[in-house]
Design brief:
about 150 residues, mainly alpha, about 0% strand, endonuclease, nuclease
């Protein structure tokens, strides 16, 4: 059934920009990631003509199609590229994204930041190392190719 994979990516070519609109500013939690992966799997199941009554796992469907989930990885790459652009400019956006501006924090549980999501995607390390890595365009391209 590998013949259906090419039309799948052609057909989602019009839908992927709609799903990813404004993704540079999103904070992706585990719940959001699941909601983003659901339509991708739904499209793939429709293209492979697998009914929901077949009770096949998502991993099995991906193996049949010889594909990996790519939407969240593409979003992470867009975020890292945009954040690298902001960090290289070094203006007000740089201060806001790194959290180095004066004032008091809000009460209650702190919101998840884009930097937190990219830190988990790029791997463990100090924030200064992560900021230096984000500024490096080649490192972002390699991280995307590895699929981490």
């Amino acid at each position: 059934m590998g013949y259906c994979v090419c039309p799948f990516f052609r057909s989602t070519g019009g839908l992927q920009p709609v799903l990813m609109y404004g993704c540079e500013a999103w904070t992706i939690s585990k719940q959001t990631q699941n909601k983003l992966e659901a339509p991708e799997m739904w499209f793939l199941r429709r293209m492979l003509r697998i009914p929901w009554t077949a009770k096949k796992t998502n991993e099995r469907v991906l193996n049949e199609a010889n594909k990996r989930r790519s939407l969240v990885r593409t979003i992470r790459k867009c975020q890292a590229t945009f954040l690298g652009h902001v960090m290289r400019r070094g203006k007000l956006e740089h201060l806001v994204t790194t959290g180095k501006f004066e004032g008091k924090r809000s009460r209650g549980r702190q919101r998840e930041k884009i930097m937190d999501g990219l830190a988990t995607w790029l791997g463990p390390g100090k924030m200064s190392d992560i900021l230096a890595a984000i500024k490096d365009r080649d490192m972002i391209a390699n991280a995307y190719k590895q699929g981490t």
